[in-house]
């Protein structure tokens, strides 16, 4: 007759969320898992991938963008000029809402976003290059001339 290793199974303790204000959370910079850490910590070491992630200072305003390489949602400190994806290592341009403009692709009509000051934007869908700032009549006049 087999003998059990433990005479009685240990009861599972239900998860109780931390008391408000005692812990916070952030995304691991290595494996993208959610990390819990005590308030006041300056960095957190991930138990899964051992990456050390810096904790932003209290009151730091965060922003989000979607990586252009792998489409992972990235969080970064608002005001950063660029953000490197920890998954695919693509360096993404981090523009604020007031630094970008929109235009429809001149070929497939897809809505494109581009930084202010750009003279043209290339569509990622059809590869067409749309000129910025030139009206349709200006383009037609150049084609006729």
Percent range for helical residues?
under 10%
Shape: elongated
> What is the N-to-C order of secondary-structure elements (H for helix, E for strand)?
EEEEEEEEEEEEH
Average pLDDT, rounded to a whole number, is: 77
Strand arrangement within the widest β-sheet reads 1-2
Largest sheet: 2 strands, antiparallel
Radius of gyration: 25 Å
**Span of the ends, CA to CA:** 98 Å
Please, how many helices?
1
Uncertain runs are 3-17, 135-145
SSE blueprint:
Elements: E1 23-27, E2 34-38, E3 43-45, E4 52-54, E5 62-66, E6 73-77, E7 82-84, E8 91-93, E9 100-104, E10 111-115, E11 120-122, E12 129-131, H1 136-144
Antiparallel strand pairs: 1-2, 3-4, 5-6, 7-8, 9-10, 11-12
Explain what you see.
With 145 residues, this protein is mainly beta. Helix content is 6%, strand content 33%. Strand 9 and strand 10 (111-115) form a beta hairpin. The protein is elongated and about 50 Å long. The chain starts with 22 loop residues before the first strand and ends with a helix. 4% of the residues are buried. Residues 3-17 and 135-145 have low confidence and may be disordered.
